[in-house]
Amino acid sequence: MTVTQLDPGPRPVVAVVGPTATGKSDLAVTLAQRCDGEIINADSMQLYRGMDIGTAKLPPAERGGVAHHLLDIWPISKSAAVADYQALARAVIADIHARGKLPILVGGSGLYVRGTLDRLEFPGESSAVRARLSAELDELGSHIMHGRLSQADPAAASNILPSNARRIVRALEVIEITGRPFSATMPPFESIYDTVQIALDRADLDDRVRLRVDRMMAAGLLDEVRSLLPAGLADSPTAGKALGYQQLLTVLDSEGALVGDLDEAVTATVRGTLRFVRRQRSWFRRDPRARWLDAADGGLVDKALALLPPTLVK
Question: What does the domain layout of the chain look like in residue ranges?
Fold first, then answer.
């Protein structure tokens, strides 16, 4: 007798998302402990080896014995491609499912989260178009190029910082290659998994951002930036543009000597992070599937667990 294998349907995935400094990593560890889960990093800058302090990468001693995936996998010199991350993250999810555990995706990089969870295909690339646009960027500056993007695709421009040269060039590249707005490449909100998306925010986030930057500096962020100079941080198309790293690079020479105003670099880091927080909020608030919780709530863990199907909680 032939037995027909039934499609089990979408497998469960939990995503913990939201702006930076809300406490996503700590909540994810607790959920993983309670649900026999493993954590998959969805912070684009935590993928890089050596970028620990400035990305708030959770130290091994604070991971609660929970397996963490997609941390420290790329060299500083690598240019991040969301399509590369998508393939890696989905492979990790499949492996975790195969071992009977719960994948928990954690991070604030919105496109990385959607690229993993949703039916999202990334347009191809053209090295010739990108090289030409990069040359124009060097000549005109990111703000002029952002203005060009605003004319071609206002929706995309509203979600990309004028200082984010890499994403501006990529958006203009896609528009030129496809003949469509970059924002049109984003599909409806449709996950390929049975996803529960827990989003965190809190009213005191601005103060937490300022405190976090101060603590990063006290923990040795400047020395971390210096240590990454030989690996090519200053020339990295992605890692070198990370918040904190980019600002501190402006006050160091090629040998790591301080040649600029460190206080102003710290202030610029706080300003840039606060702008980033606003854009993260805007990105995740558009997703109707996100279940928002107050990260300052003393009952956060219980409320997060209550959002999950009872069968996932051990």
Answer: 12-121+187-309, 127-185
